[in-house]
Design a protein that fits this description.
The chain has 259 residues and is α/β, with parallel strands linked by helices. The protein contains ten helices and seven strands. It has a seven-stranded parallel sheet, with helices on both faces. The mean pLDDT is 94. Pfam families: adh_short_C2.
């Protein structure tokens, strides 16, 4: 387990839900949160990979529980949170990380491809936030939600991924609205805007936008990030160290958004 620090001690034993927690940033984040002593509910569509992520955490002494969930389905989202509360009694934090790509020029996109990007990246995010905000508000002792968006939600970087870009801009707007509406209840809602991170999604973007090769030429450091680097910022946003941070979109991008 990770050595205890001020940030980690303030999240110890808190219950966190991680959507898209079976791979990439979500899986790495679930592991980081568990190392910090959090009780982790892993939500993902893949039964096999979700169970693997749960086992991986438990084998290292952490606490995790996997629930199969497609965030675009409101019934599955409700069930997932009901299972989380049944298991741990409450939900303190949430990392809304589930997402899909949306490749294709806008003029060439099929309606179903556009709809799929919004069904997961925007509507799915809202469905999860709706349950989280209701639960945390009823608990009356605060809570922290972190939405995983993208630098594409702040700046239009590449052509050919219009549905993805639009869905991430909408996710940023939802973050800010939720923060404004629930601040007086002690709830904080922030977002991360990762740049390129070593992941299956980045590898899959090679054909469409040049993947890591193109990104290295755009980032001041010339470095591709890691999923763990993103997770550590999310962990900080769950902690008391960030108690006055609300409604923000934090770039985790090697300085890309500063250029």
């Amino acid at each position: 387990m990770t050595e205890d620090t001020g940030t980690r001690s303030s999240v110890d034993r808190k219950v966190v839900v991680v959507t898209g927690g079976s791979s990439g940033i979500g899986r790495a984040s679930a592991a980081v949160f568990a190392e910090a002593g959090m009780r982790v509910v892993i939500a993902a569509r893949s039964q096999e990979r979700g169970a693997e992520a749960e086992h991986e955490i438990r084998s290292r002494g952490g606490e995790a529980h996997f629930v199969r969930c497609d965030v675009s389905d409101p019934d599955q989202v409700r069930n997932m949170f009901a299972r989380a509360v049944e298991r741990y009694g409450r939900v303190d934090c949430a990392f809304n990380n589930a997402g899909v790509s949306g490749d294709g020029r806008l003029a060439d996109l099929a309606p179903q491809d556009f709809d799929r990007a919004f069904a997961v990246n925007t509507r799915g995010l809202w469905l999860c936030m709706r349950e989280e905000l209701r639960l945390m508000s009823a608990q009356k002792d605060g809570g922290s939600i972190v939405n995983n968006t993208s630098v594409h939600g702040i700046r239009t970087v590449f052509p050919g991924i219009g549905a993805y870009v639009a869905s991430k801009h909408a996710a940023v707007a939802l973050t800010r609205m939720a923060a404004m509406e629930h601040a007086r209840e002690g709830l904080r809602v922030n977002a991360l805007a990762p740049g390129p991170v070593e992941s299956e999604m980045l590898a899959a973007s090679e054909a469409a936008v040049g993947g890591a090769t193109t990104w290295r030429g755009l980032i001041p450091s010339g470095e591709i990030g890691t999923a763990r680097q993103v997770a550590e910022v999310a962990l900080w946003l769950f902690s008391t160290a960030s108690s006055y941070v609300n409604g923000q979109v934090i770039g985790v991008d090697g300085g890309f958004l500063a250029t």
